[in-house]
Structure of Phytochrome-like protein cph2:
Amino acid sequence: HAGRNNVCFYGDILHLKSIGREHVAIQARLSDAIRHGALQTFYQPIVSASTGQVYAVEALARWKDGNGWISPELFIPMAEKVGLIQELSSVVAEQAFAQLRAWRDNGLTQKLMLNVSRTQLFTPQFVSSLIERLNTHRLRPEDVIIEITESVALTDYARQVKHLRQLMASGFQLAIDDFGTGYSSLSQLHDMPASVIKVDVSFAQRLDTDAGRRVMQAIVQLAQGLQLKVIVEGVESLEVSHFLRDLGVDFLQGFHFSEPVPAGVAELWMRLGL
Ligand code: C2E
Ligand code: CA
Ligand code: CA
Ligand code: CA
């Protein structure tokens, strides 16, 4: 969109498909960034709707490039495509676990929410190496909630469920990310071994209509009936946060509370509440 010899930054993601050459350049630079410490993990608080206390923080990858921050919406799919997701994820996990250890040492008890892609999930040694990494930092699976996006093709479904059961049996909690946007959301609830659903941002953005409010209410009732905890993502105003609290939503996440921030800022929220 901006012409040739440009790299797309935050906000320009959608134009990327049309510019193949820069794609290749970005791949080389991503690989470089992973190896040379240009990836930084940010944290976004997840807040108890009733108390305002920070219940957990979600680890979100950021790529600091000379000219600014490159969005994970751009580089995560790319990392998946070019086989760098494993490497990228271990950088994020390593930073997040080291940080969580430091927080534990400072008396903080919040959980860490970690995004796991399907590619990772299907790696044979995934669960054991995750546990090994936790052990290195004297952490337990109970400290971590694994977020899995539900947009998964049905052919992989049985295999996915098997891996997820293995994770849960090891003591991890599981959250279905982007709930409501994937394939056959509802039928997956039958045998997905999750304890939390994260309602996709798009639902919080439709609460200005009657239909939008009723859909949200129905999702919350469904989750409660299944004894799943509900996190709503994309809470951008006080009004929405009150509406969701009154609906019985357990936890809220969104710019109204905080955007994803560096660890030091997140720690402040964890201590003081939001
Ligand atoms: P996600 O897991 O759904 O993460 C939530 C995204 O929503 C984040 O985008 C966050 O900044 C954004 N968000 C938070 N609050 C609000 C709000 O109030 N309004 C709106 N409109 N958006 C909000 P971000 O950080 O750009 O991450 C994008 C996606 O990249 C994530 O979506 C996740 O799927 C992926 N991702 C990020 N880090 C990692 C990682 O370490 N591993 C993997 N596998 N995926 C990651
Ligand atoms: Ca997530
Ligand atoms: Ca999400
Ligand atoms: Ca998302």
Notes: The pocket of calcium ion (ligand 2) is lined by residues 58, 115, 147, 177 (CB under 6 Å). The mean pLDDT is 89.
